[in-house]
Amino acid sequence: MDDRQPDVDPDVVATAEDIAAMRIRGAATIADAAAEALATQAERSQAKRPAAFQRQLRVAAKTLYETRPTAVSLPNALRYVLRGMDGETVAELRDATIARAEEFQRELAQAQASLGAVGSNRLRDGDVVMTHCHSTDALSCLEAALEDGKEIEAIVKETRPRKQGHITARRLRELGIPVTLIVDNAARRYLDEADHVLVGADSIAADGSVINKIGTSGLAVNARERGVPVMVAAQTIKLHPDTMTGHTVEIEMRAESEVIGDEERTDITGGASDDGLTVENPGFDVTPPRYVDAIVTERGQFPPESIVTLMRELFGETTGDPWEQ
Ligand code: RUB
User: Fold this and answer.
1) Which of 52, 54, 211, 319 could cross-link to 3 by cystine, CB 3.0-4.6 Å?
2) Which residue among 133, 137, 242, 285 is the active-site one?
3) What is the pLDDT of residues 157-179, one digit of tens each?
4) 121-249+282-315, superfamily in CATH?
């Protein structure tokens, strides 16, 4: 192939499309798939010269980066792998990139298991946990609690519009946890029966705000009012380094078709072309730190207001976008 024309491998493009369409979803799973895709790009690259190889990897990373804006685990994963792209020859670069991607995936799995053990310590035998969306980090806490011999029950919010709560319900039933599935609007009523709210995070900002599936903030405010503690399970890859320098987290707006079909729209509007109906579908919202009791990470649990200390330790003050070079 022509070294001047960086080609993105079709499987990398397919992964990017799967992430955009949410066939691959959830922050940790997206990060894992992105690292895997960069390894695939490295393995299959036909580049003859080191500079061309590096350029290809950057273009592949950019293709993946542009799929979903809110989950910071995606750029964090891409940065991690690209930083490990060391070597003088194409062969050295290839081996280093693949090894780095594998290391990332191993550490991701290890971090999730470690935070599960921390999260389990917050749960007591017989506790009832209310969940929102589907978070593998949150699930890890419940798995660890079961391994610790605790009996846990779950109230699972279905999580409109995509109903990721059904994934949570399925996984919890596989683990043998009794599940009560509720519509989102019933959450406040059922908080009286819950001992904890347990959610994941797509990003955590330097001030301790938690960015997670739309509906998390309302749930957290209601939980505070009902006196139910809110636990956020989030590996440190969910920490958003750019927020240390004042950047805000972009909230993804998703397609209207997730909320309303063509027929329903016509039912409402009568089918006029300029029908005056706007549908908004934000994927995520921001829960202020005062509504969060603990952020549970693989480094231990933190009050949200102190998370910036951990961010500085892990990321330094700046980060950068290596795929733009
Ligand atoms: C998923 C979501 C999850 C976080 C954490 O949103 O908000 O709570 O991504 O998940 P979507 P995990 O379904 O739009 O991707 O703990 O698995 O990283």
Assistant:
1) 52
2) 133
3) 999 999 999 999 999 999 999 99
4) Translation initiation factor eif-2b; domain 2 (3.40.50.10470)
